[in-house]
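ok trying this again, last paste got cut off
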Amino acid sequence: MSDKSVIFFLVCIIITLLAVICYQRFAFHKEIQIKLKKISEKLSDILEKDSDEKVMVFTENKILMELSGQINRMLLDRQKIKIDYRRQEMSAKKMLSNISHDIKTPLTVILGYLEIMRIEHEEDETLQKVEAKAKQVMELINQFFTLAKLEAGDMNVELTKLDINELCRENVLEFRELLSQKDFTVELSIPEKKCYVQGEKKSIDRILNNLLSNAIRYGSDGKYIGVFLREEEQFIKIDIVDKGRGIEKEFAENVFERLYTMEDSRNRRIQGNGLGLTIAKNLAKQMGGDIVLESEPDIKTVFTVKLKKISY
């Protein structure tokens, strides 16, 4: 074999070895990328679903094994924090429920004495004001008590089949005189055929009463209130509309928070009627539904109640 042939043969071997090494490195990096992508997707899925799963990766690469181990340690710590938070939250809700109940008893006695005093001194304006404020405190305590029981899971909402059309009409009629006095334009769109939902009458009445009260109180500038019932495949939706000042987009997401308030330079406006909206949303969720808000300031504000539909 000539020297040229030997050199050519050696060059071919070197090129082949380099190609094998490059391919191995490429395959190694490709495998690492695939494994990292799977880890990233699994971690994203765990965080999005808020589940207690762990990241599982099958590899002999020590670095990837260490990485998945550290991720799982963080997920385990996160799970422990969630459990502690839920335990503390439940404890706080039960404590609030107990405190609300304990405050109601002496306040009821105080109201009783105030009523007796008012009967004996009918013309005492100061006494009348004190009694009115005491009743407001009692109402707030009752709302706290209701909300605490809902959030602690101590309030049972018994679900039955209800004619939502009739409930809507009944609740609007309760405000007929007030709407007439305030010179409101009322627009109703409720189908003639019966629509049935899964719910509890008392809870639905409370939700509608609260939303109609809010629309009258905070939408008075627009002198308009609308109630529109629409039927979808799985849900019945009730839109309660007013054309008042509305709620800015940055505040709209917060109106269902407990005791949320919003203040601007022109006027102080308390959204949610104390705890009313918070309770209403909780009641809707207890029945498998929800309440959402859409608002365009000075154009219209729409609270939508979503309830589970029952087929005929």
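PB: full thing came through this time. Residues 263-273 have pLDDT under 50 and may be disordered.
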